[in-house]
Amino acid sequence: MTAAALIETRTTCPYCGVGCGVIAQHDGVQITGVRGDPDHPANFGRLCSKGANLHLTTLPEVAQTSRLLTPGMRVERSAPMQTVSWDSALDSVAERIAQTVAEHGPDSVGIYVSGQLLTEDYYAFNKLTKALIGTQNIDTNSRLCMSSAVAGYKATLGTDSVPCSYEDIDHARVLFISGSNTAFAHPVLYRRIEAARAANPDLKIIVVDPRRTDTAAEADLHLPILPGTDVMLYQGMLHIMLWESWIDRVFIDARTEGFDQLKAQVRNATPAEVARVCGIDQAALLEATRLFATQGPTLSLYCQGLNQSADGTHKNAALINLHLATGQIGKPGAGPFSLTGQPNAMGGREVGGLANLLPAHRDLSNPAHRAEVAAFWGIDEVPTTRGKTAVEMFEAARTGQIKLLWIVCTNPAHSLPNQQAVHEALSTVPCVIVQDAFASPATLRYADIVLPATPWAEKDGTVTNSERRISRQRAVLPPMGEARHDWLIAAQVAQNLAARWGRLQRGFAWADSEAVWNEWRELTRGTDCDITGMSYAMLDAAPQQWPLREGEATGAARLFTDGRFHTPSGRARFVAQGYKPVADRVDAQFPLALTTGRLRDQWHGLSRTGLVPKLFAHAPEPRIEMNGADMGRRGLREGDLVAVESRRGRQVLPVAASDAMRSGQAFMAMHWGEEYLGGAGTHGVNSVTSDAIDPVSRQPELKHAAVRVSKLDLSWRLVAHVTCNLADLQPRLAELRSLLLEVDYWALVPTTLGESAGITLRMANATRPPQPVLDALGIALNLAPDARLLRYADAQRGVERRLRVVAQGSAGTDATGSGARAISALWLSGPQDALDAEGWLRSFIDTRQDVSRLGAALLAGGSQAPVPVQVRGAAVCSCLGVSEPAIRACLAEVKGTAQERLAALQARHHCGTQCGSCLPELKRLVTQVQPAKAMGVVSESVSGSLVK
Question: Which domains are seen in the chain, by residue range?
Answer without folding.
Answer: 3-65 (3.30.200.210), 72-144+345-454+476-493 (3.40.50.740), 147-338 (3.40.228.10), 592-711 (2.40.40.20), 716-867 (no CATH), 875-947 (no CATH)
